[in-house]
Every structure is written in structure tokens, then in C-alpha cells.
Amino acid sequence: MIWLAWRQFRTQAYVVAGVLAVVAVAYLLTGPSLVHAYDTSILTCKAHSDCPSVLANFAARDHLLRDLALAVIIVPALLGLFWGAPLIAREMENGTFRLAWTQSVTRSRWFVTKLSIVALGSMAVAGLFSLMVTWWSSPFDTINNNPFSYFDLRDIVPVGYAAFAFALGVTMGILVRRTLPAMAATLVAFTAIRGAFTLWVRPHLLNPLHYKGAFVLNQSGSIEVPGRGQSGNLVISSQTLNAKGAVIGSNGGIGPNGEINFHPGAHGGTVLNGVGTCPTTIPTPTGRQRFSSQPSLAVQHAVQKCINSFHMKEVLTYQPASRYWTLQWYELAIFMVMSLLLATFAWWWVRRRLA
Description:
Low-confidence stretches: 219-229
Strand order of the largest sheet: 1-7-2-3
Helix content: 55-70%
Structural class: alpha+beta
Strand content: 5-15%
């Protein structure tokens, strides 16, 4: 039975192995030069005071391979569609499962053998691809310094996604008994579950931390929370409060879209939209500053002085960057458990419900 299951699966396995080999060669040829460029330019740019230009040049490297790295998010879904859903559904459509059951092979052995070989292959494909992408992308990830922005694309969680997508595809195939409808159902269900988990489950796998402090506007227009809400944390919610404690904004600004807008007021004053009139006038940029995205120090100080006068507070709920690996292991475990539950249900359905 093992030999038969491998014979049915080997063509697909060889094709995917070939694709992985090509990707590996591309990454191996470009990865060392990427690390060398990082070591010789990014790590030394502060000494030459040219970090913005160096970072811009580095970010422009290898766009094609960086786009390829994004495929990690769709590989598990593809494995569920093309390896999971047809695995049993095609046997049902063609009636070949009856031939296997009339031989000396039991339903359980037939199902477990087919499922195990392809499931292990699916997890291996997702794991190897994620490993290559994680290694190759490490210089960009270090610069980005926001691990939760690529949480789904790195390290160990893609293995859990692949196992779950495959088990979901097999289950849909058994229930629907038609390959194409099973593939469609797998795609819809997998996308919905992954999206719901990312939005509503992951942020609360561990009790989030909370911070309340003075509202501080950084140069890019977003809030900074000294020592706690720094780059790299997973911000679950961000609210701006006025001096009375009422919510007047979110996402680091005033209003629902996180904006900070000023407009001229009466008698030459400046009004902070949604809050009130600033006690001092914010200077108008002149000369080159009018065309620069970076405001002058005088403008920055005047803006912050205006904000401070309203005694606004910023309330954050977040998962700190230090919990990244804990959440990776938790999410992997959850998706592996869901995969086992789906596989167990599919096994029971084959044994008890199929004629």
C-alpha cells in the first residue's frame, strides 16, 4: 500500500521538488551578496551620515526574489487545493476506492497510508520554502524591525498552515466527493479561517499588555510610546483620549483614520482639527522646507507644544515583540491540533459513513 500511494504521488512530488531546487539555487546565489551588502553598507552608514540613501538603495535590491518570498502565504493554500482536495475526492469520482477495498487492504490502512505520505510531503514543502525565505530575507527583516508584519511568512507557522490546509482539503473531498467543488470549498474555508485567526485569535493568544501615556507625535506623524510601544510590537488597538478621558481618535491620530491635521484659525492662530485652537502659532515652512517631507525642528517643537497643551493621552493594547516566538509556537500547535482533528474526522467518515 505504501508503494502504491507513493507511485500515485511521486510525479507531483518530483515537480515540486524541482521547483524548490530552482528557488534554493536562486537564493543561494544571491543570499551571500545580500548579507555582504548589509554588513558593508547598512552597518556602517551611521559613520558616514548617509543612512537614508543607503537604506533606499538596499531596499531596491532583488525585487523579484522578494516578491517570490511572498508566495509563502499562498503555498499552504495551494497544497490544500491541489494535493489535499483531490486525494480522496478523485477516488470517489472515479470509483477506484472500491477496487482497493475489495482487496486485502482495509479502509483504515488505505486512508491512513495515502494521507500520511502526502501530508508529510506538504509539511516538508512548506517548511523548506519557509526556511529558505527566512534565511534569505533576514537582512531586510532586520532593517524592517517589525516581526509581526511578516509573521505568516517566516519560521515555523507555515508548516502548521500547510498541514491544516491539506487536512481541510482531504475532509472537503470526502464530504463533497467531487474534485473541483472540493477545491473551491477548501479555498473559501481556508481563507476564512486564516483571516479570522489573524484578526481575532492571534492578538489574544496571550494576555495583551496595556500602556497609557502622553500623546507624542513623531516625525512621521505616528505615535511613539517611549520604551513600550516601540517598533516591532503587535499593536492591537490604539486610542487617543482628550483631557477629559473621552476617545477622540485612533491609530495614532485624531478621528478614526489616525490623522493629524492643522488649519489656520481666527486672528492668525492654528487649529488642531477635532481638538481646539493651539496656544501658539505654528510657523509656516519657507524656502526648501516647503518642499521637504521632513519638517524643521521649529515646526516639530511648535506642533508638539500645541499637542501638549491639550493634555491628550495615548492608550495602547499590544503584544510585545519579545513574544514573537511564543506566538509562533502557539499558532503552530493550534493548527497542528486542528489538522489532527480534521484527519480523525475524515478517517471516521471513511470507515463509518462511506458505502
